[in-house]
Amino acid sequence: MEADRPSADRDLSREVLITEGATLGLALADAVVTSLTHNTIYAVTEDLHRIEWAGGSAVRKVLTPTGSGAEHWAASDDPGHFNYWRRELEVYRSGFPAQIGLGAPDFYGAIDLDDGSVALWLERVEGSTGRDLSVAMLAETARVLGRSQGRADSPRPPWLSRRFLRTYSASKPAALRNYEDDARWDHPLIAACWPASIRDDFRAMLDNLETLLAQSESLPRVVAHLDVWPNNIVMKTSGEPAFLDWAFVGDGSVGEDIGNLIPDAVLDLLVPSDRLPELEASVFDAYLEGLVSAGWSGDAETVRLGMHTAAIKYYWLAPLLLDRVDDPEH
User: Fold this and answer.
1) Which residues, listed in sequence order, are joined to residue 34 by a DSSP beta bridge?
2) Average of pLDDT values for 138-163?
3) Which of 44, 48, 227, 257 has minimal Cβ neighbours within 10 Å of its Cβ?
4) pTM greater than 0.70 (yes/no)
């Protein structure tokens, strides 16, 4: 979960569009180009556009090693780093999603740009996404993830991210001093919205951070998407989910992906908070069924532990919200 900021994409000139289209065998002289909102904190994604023409549509996504996003999300040249800038190119070029049994946009091709960036041309997947996804659709997504992650034969290419939970969590700037600031916890907005137990719960997570990280890293390993949330899922009319944004894919613990999906769906206001218990139960049960159907023989409590320890990635959230409590845009 990361605050979404309006994109500030470079203009996509008609000349560039036609030239790239010709390389890919597409006639784009009359194409309509729309700049899409994306998270500009993430330094790897430089531009994101929807391209529509008489014969179809596509998404053009530019990956760059020198993006201008936040320092803590700077691009990396290390293939194991969670922010390795070429990972999505490797994912699509190799057909990796199909190799692990997951749906993804079709890959139309990649164009090397003069500044060292790469433009990916991807299918514009049609279907339900974001807040249009029902709890049942999210549960089906979890079932598909379980079937993928229960397999024993998933490939492990060298560009998969490593130790994502630890490195991603450590990268987040957190005003930890706010944990000790009584005045912020007593703020009327905080007092009205947060139960008193949250302070102790977050404090316990912070005090035991290393133990929780080690526990997560000791769990059975799977190939995880590592950014599964409703806006990165498109449920097609066929009933099959397509997963978007493969930038973080890598080694994860069993249950880690649903430990991201469930809280992100609620924290990003895509599923009402009063449906959280239903969402958790439905997603967990479906994910476990998927694992078992693929031959996984572990126990349910191991999966639950993986799901719960994934919450470590949110340890920075409470101090951030405390820091912004008087912000007019809070």
Assistant:
1) 50
2) 97
3) 48
4) yes
Q: Give, in order, the Cα–Cα distances in Å from 81 to each of 85, 159, 168, 247.
A: 9, 9, 9, 10
The amino acid that residue 112 corresponds to is D
What tokens appear for 201 in the block? Answer: 């719960």
Nearest-angstrom CA–CA distance, 256 and 213 = 12
Distance CA(56)–CA(173), nearest Å, equals 42
Residue 128 three-state SS: strand
Superfamily per CATH, domain 128-323: Aminoglycoside phosphotransferase (APH), C-terminal lobe (3.90.1200.10)
What is the residue extent of each domain of the chain? 14-123, 128-323
What does the alpha-carbon distance between residue 287 and residue 254 come to, in Å, rounded to a whole number?
10
In tens, the pLDDT along 72-98 reads 889 999 999 999 999 999 999 999 999
Residue 219 Cα distances to 25, 146, 241, 308, 310, angstroms = 46, 15, 26, 12, 11
Question: At what angle are helices 209-217 and 197-207 packed, to 10 degrees?
Answer: 70
324: amino acid identity, one letter: R
Cα dihedral sign, 214-82-297-287: positive
Distance separating alpha carbons of residues 290 and 270, to the nearest angstrom: 24
Distance of alpha carbon 88 from alpha carbon 301, whole angstroms: 33
Give the model confidence (pLDDT) of 3-22 as tens digits.
333 344 456 899 999 999 99
| 3-state percent helix, strand, coil for the chain, nearest multiple of 5 | 45, 15, 40
**Architecture of the domain made up of 14-123:** 2-Layer Sandwich (3.30)
Kind of pairing between the strands at 128-129 and 233-235: antiparallel
Name beta bridge partners: 26.
none
